[in-house]
């Protein structure tokens, strides 16, 4: 054959599977009876050859399974007749589907901003091999204690989200006045959220408390 198979494609099936498909070499370029296809399948990072096989002339698709999550792979192929092989097609690349992160945010800290606001800060390693997908942002959970600082089974849970994958802080608003919160945070892909961070507890200010503290600080500075 003087040409490679055409319309070679690599499709995402799920997080650990891909499927290659292709069409026959055009008749004018076959130059004989097609006896089959030679298929090479590589891991794109480092180019490790995973499959190197021959399939029959009536086969026009092939599944690849047990792959790594959210990794890039390539496929290329050529046909052969009794006289030998034709040229290789260009490599076609595709990612396996994404999943949920396997790592948690770390170094979580939080402090009260006002009687209804708490600011949360954290760090996160966004290595794709840990995120296992495109990082969409973070989901913050605020578990609210009752007036006795107890977290009952039916405690109110407030949820906040960031949609900026590089942002590592968030001000949670519209919280209850002088209320204790148990805060956790998790990274999020399009599939779902990963494991939560270690929790951090902080209380919102009482009514007027933050402004009183600011006035006191200003007076102290003036007296000095």
From TrEMBL:
It holds the Pfam family fn3. Keywords: Repeat. InterPro entries: FN3_dom, FN3_sf, Ig-like_fold, RTP_Phos/Ushers. Residues 4-99, 104-207 form the Fibronectin type-III domain. One of its GO terms (cellular component) is membrane. The keyword Repeat applies. This is Fibronectin type-III domain-containing protein. It comes from Pocillopora damicornis. The lineage of its organism: Eukaryota, Metazoa, Cnidaria, Anthozoa, Hexacorallia.
């Amino acid at each position: 054959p003087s040409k490679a198979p055409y319309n070679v494609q690599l499709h995402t099936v799920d997080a650990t599977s891909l499927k290659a498909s292709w069409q026959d070499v055009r008749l004018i370029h076959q130059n004989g009876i097609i006896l089959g296809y030679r298929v090479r399948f590589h891991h794109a990072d480092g180019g490790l050859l995973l499959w190197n096989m021959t399939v029959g002339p009536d086969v026009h698709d092939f599944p690849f399974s047990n792959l790594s999550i959210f990794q890039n792979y390539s496929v290329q192929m050529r046909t052969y007749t009794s006289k030998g092989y034709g040229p290789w097609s260009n490599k076609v690349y595709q990612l396996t589907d994404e999943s949920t992160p396997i790592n948690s945010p770390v170094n979580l800290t939080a402090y009260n901003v006002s009687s209804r606001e708490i600011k949360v800060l954290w760090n996160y390693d966004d290595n794709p091999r840990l995120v296992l997908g495109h990082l969409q942002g973070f989901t913050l959970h605020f578990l609210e204690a009752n007036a006795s600082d107890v977290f009952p089974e039916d405690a109110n849970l407030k949820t906040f989200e960031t949609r900026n994958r590089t942002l590592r802080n968030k001000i949670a608003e519209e919280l209850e006045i002088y209320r204790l919160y148990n805060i956790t945070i998790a990274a999020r892909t399009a599939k779902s959220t990963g494991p939560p961070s270690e929790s951090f507890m902080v209380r919102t200010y009482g009514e007027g408390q933050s402004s009183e503290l600011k006035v006191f600080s200003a007076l102290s500075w003036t007296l000095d």
